[in-house]
Every structure is written in structure tokens, then in C-alpha cells.
């Protein structure tokens, strides 16, 4: 069955079909000259009916194909993917395998995400997602669905969401979506007024985290935090290129990792500014009370005392994962100067910092906000 999209929600065009069916039929009957019906009897009526059917089929076809392409932003295949198997929410049967004694609003079941953490990877987004889920009115999907970059059905996607009650806010996390315009457009097609959270962090810290993950994936080491010397050594060999016989920083690689501006421009072109919250990681670590308050307000949930503490010297972040459980995690690349200091590579730090300085400035101007990078 064809689907249509309206006001950000999807509905089947089934009802439209019947609506047009009725209207076209009546209109067409009036167009058939009276004498044909009188003089030719049944034969005339049958011909008129057949003609009506042709018109109905054509009108329905053009109407539905018009409705399938609501805006230039969404391609037909995007839309097809997003609407396949869609109903307003996950079907009641799948939602409630449990006790039917309780009404639906008292039975936890998956809800449509109304907020999305879209990036940036390597800026502690997963830690913040855990801390966010401590709020009693927020559920965070921690399972990687890759829905907006993959080809699963919307029904499947929604069924992956954690069970929640109607007044809860469901937040999904996909930290690489922000770097791909196509994925952002699909998010927009899903819900153009969805709330978007973006976490940014010092580009050098992101560079280090990216490098450390790279070393981990090629099997250099299995430990979570790498020794600074190994890290900086590998950066020295991978972040430079030869230009005219001179060793230069690889500008392309560096800006892909640390130039947030280029991605945020895409994001702000697609979503209204008021629906996007940019969170700076260090600010959240240093000033958790006011920063969390801002996040909760943005999500429209009541205040909650998420007591995040961050120990700058050890890089340990502690936060409540629920009202009874507290967790501490090492987040080792926050203090970038320590990494370079330990590796005796302050000159490299200086050149990377010089590379990012103008890019940071441009970002501050664009966001009308100044970070301490
Ligand atoms: C974005 O994602 C699409 C589809 O998943 C892919 O074809 C495209 O190459 C990606 N673009 C970038 C810039 O990574
Ligand atoms: C899309 O789905 C098909 C069939 O389920 C699968 O074979 C294919 O690998 C999927 N492609 C992507 C990009 O996930
Ligand atoms: C889209 O997101 C907004 C903001 O979270 C929410 O209020 C609205 O209900 C969502 N719409 C749908 C169809 O999920
Ligand atoms: C590091 O960043 C680059 C550029 O964004 C990306 O292509 C690469 O996959 C990242 N590496 C890791 C290990 O995350
Ligand atoms: C955070 O965790 C601590 C220790 O488990 C607990 O005493 C405190 O009440 C929690 N805070 C909130 C707001 O739930």
C-alpha cells in the first residue's frame, strides 16, 4: 500500500483513496449526459461505470505518486525506506506482550524517539548518553541501530527502542550521523521537528581519541587508554604529508576530524536552530549543574540532579547511571596538553593548535559562543 507523509507523521493513503474514490465517482456521474443513461439503459450505465473506474485509477495514481514526494529534500528511495511497514507507532500487539489487565499508558513499551544525539564521535557522547539516561523521565537507546544510515524498516527501528511510558522522552544515539548529509536528511524525513543534541569537544582531543581508536582497531593494543608516547609517535607518522619536499600537517585529515563547522552548517540548514542543542564536553565536565539543567530544559523534562564529577588529573568521570547506581569511567583524552607533555611533543601540539585556531574561531563566530580550545 502506498504511504503518504504529512505534518511529520506518516499515514497510509488508504483513507485518501476512499475519499477520492467517492468524490470522483459522484463528479463523474454528473458529467455523463442524462440521455445516454436513459436511451441506452444498462449498457450506458456500464460504460459510464467503466469510464469512472479508469478516471478513479488515474486520479488515485497521480495523487499518490504526488504525495510520495513531499519535498526535494527526501528522495523517493529514502521515503520508501522510511515508510516501509510504518504505522503510527509500534503495533499494540508487539508493544504489549505482558499483562493486558493494565491500560496501554501504564505498560512500558517502545516509543518513537523524539530526540537524537547525532554526534560527534570521540567526544564522550556515549558517556553522556549513559548519564542522560539516569533521568527518571528519559530513556536512551544504547543499541546501535544505524537506522538512518542503513536499510531496515521503520517498524523494526521503532521496535528496537527501550520500553518507556507515554510521558517519557526517548532519545536515540547515532554519533556518526552528523557527518553525513544524507543521514541527516533521513532524520529530517522521519521527524523534521525532532530535537537534536550535538556534542563537540576540543578538536585536538578528538584527534587523539581518533588516533587511539585507530591503534586499537589495528591491534596495536587492547587497553582502553594508550600510553601517550605510543599515541603521539603514531600521530607523528600519520598526520603529516610531504608537500613540495616539506613535511606538513595533513590538512585534509585534520579538518575532517576537527572542523566541526562544515558539518554544523549542514545540520543548521536542515533543522531549525531552536531544535538543535550544541553541548561542549569540557564545559559539561567543569560546570555540570548548569549544563545538565540546559539539557533537561531542552528536552522538556523536569530538573534532575545529575551529580557528574570530573577529576581533571586522572581523567575520571563519575555520574549516576540511575537513582541508585553511580559509575566512574576513565575519559583520558580530555586534557590534551598532558598527552603531549608526557610524550615530550609540545612543538607538535603547537602546530596542531595553530592549524585548528582559525577553524575554531570560525566556529565560535558561527555559534556565537566561545569555547576554551
Ligand atoms: C553518506 O551515507 C550514504 C548512504 O549511507 C553514502 O552513500 C555516502 O557515501 C555517505 N557520504 C559520506 C560523505 O560519507
Ligand atoms: C540492505 O538489505 C539487504 C537485504 O536485507 C542486505 O542484503 C544488504 O546488505 C543491506 N544493505 C545495507 C547497506 O545495509
Ligand atoms: C517530532 O519531534 C517533536 C519534538 O521532540 C515531538 O514533539 C513530536 O511529537 C515528534 N513527532 C512525531 C511524529 O514523532
Ligand atoms: C578517524 O577519523 C577519520 C576522519 O573522520 C575517520 O575516517 C576514521 O574512521 C576515524 N578512525 C577511527 C578509528 O575512528
Ligand atoms: C546518585 O547516586 C548516589 C549514589 O548511588 C545516590 O546517593 C544519589 O541519590 C543519586 N542521585 C540521584 C539524583 O539520584
UniProtKB/TrEMBL annotation:
The residue ranges crossing the membrane are 44-62
Provide the alphabetized UniProt keywords: Disulfide bond, Membrane, Transferase, Transmembrane, Transmembrane helix
Query: Which cystines does this chain contain?
Result: 318-328
Q: What is this protein called?
A: Heparan sulfate glucosamine 3-o-sulfotransferase 5-like protein
Q: Does the keyword DNA-binding apply?
A: no
Q: Which domain of life is it from?
A: Eukaryota
Lineage, broadest ranks: Eukaryota, Metazoa, Spiralia, Lophotrochozoa, Mollusca
Enumerate the Gene3D superfamilies for this protein: P-loop containing nucleotide triphosphate hydrolases (3.40.50.300)
Q: Name one GO molecular function term.
A: [heparan sulfate]-glucosamine 3-sulfotransferase activity
Amino acid at each position: 500500500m502506498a504511504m503518504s507523509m504529512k505534518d511529520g507523521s506518516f499515514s497510509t493513503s488508504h483513507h485518501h483513496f476512499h475519499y477520492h474514490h467517492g468524490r470522483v465517482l459522484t463528479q463523474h456521474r454528473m458529467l455523463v449526459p442524462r440521455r445516454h443513461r436513459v436511451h441506452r439503459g444498462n449498457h450506458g450505465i456500464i460504460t459510464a461505470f467503466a469510464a469512472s473506474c479508469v478516471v478513479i485509477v488515474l486520479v488515485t495514481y497521480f495523487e499518490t505518486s504526488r504525495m510520495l514526494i513531499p519535498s526535494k529534500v527526501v528522495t523517493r528511495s529514502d521515503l520508501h525506506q522510511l515508510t516501509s511497514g510504518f504505522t503510527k507507532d509500534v503495533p499494540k500487539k508487539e508493544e504489549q506482550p505482558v499483562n493486558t489487565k493494565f491500560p496501554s499508558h501504564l505498560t512500558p513499551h517502545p516509543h518513537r524517539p523524539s530526540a537524537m544525539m547525532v554526534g560527534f564521535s570521540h567526544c564522550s557522547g556515549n558517556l553522556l548518553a549513559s548519564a542522560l539516561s539516569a533521568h527518571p523521565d528519559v530513556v536512551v537507546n544504547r543499541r546501535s541501530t544505524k537506522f538512518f544510515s542503513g536499510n531496515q524498516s521503520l517498524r523494526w527501528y521503532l521496535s528496537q527502542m527501550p520500553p518507556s511510558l507515554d510521558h517519557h522522552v526517548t532519545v536515540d544515539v547515532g554519533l556518526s550521523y552528523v557527518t553525513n548529509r544524507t543521514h541527516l536528511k533521513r532524520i529530517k524525513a522521519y521527524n523534521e521537528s525532532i530535537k537534536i543534541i550535538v556534542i563537540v569537544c576540543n578538536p585536538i582531543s578528538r584527534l587523539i581519541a581518533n588516533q587511539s581508536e585507530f591503534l586499537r582497531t589495528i591491534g596495536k593494543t587492547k587497553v582502553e587508554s594508550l600510553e601517550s608516547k605510543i599515541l603521539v609517535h603514531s600521530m607523528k607518522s600519520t598526520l603529516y604529508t610531504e608537500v613540495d619536499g616539506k613535511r606538513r600537517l595533513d590538512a585534509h585529515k585534520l579538518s575532517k576530524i576537527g572542523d566541526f563547522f562544515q558539518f554544523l552548517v549542514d545540520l543548521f540548514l536542515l533543522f531549525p536552530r531552536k531544535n538543535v542543542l550544541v553541548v561542549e564536553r569540557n564545559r559539561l565536565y567543569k560546570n555540570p549543574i548548569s549544563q545538565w539543567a540546559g539539557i533537561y530544559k531542552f528536552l522538556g523534562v523536569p530538573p534532575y540532579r545529575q551529580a557528574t564529577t570530573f577529576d581533571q588529573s586522572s581523567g575520571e568521570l563519575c555520574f549516576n547511571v540511575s537513582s541508585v547506581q553511580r559509575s566512574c569511567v576513565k575519559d583520558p583524552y580530555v586534557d590534551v596538553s598532558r598527552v603531549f607533555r608526557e610524550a615530550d611533543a609540545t612543538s607538535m601540539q603547537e602546530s596542531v593548535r595553530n592549524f585548528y585556531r582559525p577553524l575554531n574561531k570560525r566556529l565560535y563566530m558561527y555559534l556565537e559562543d566561545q569555547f576554551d580550545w
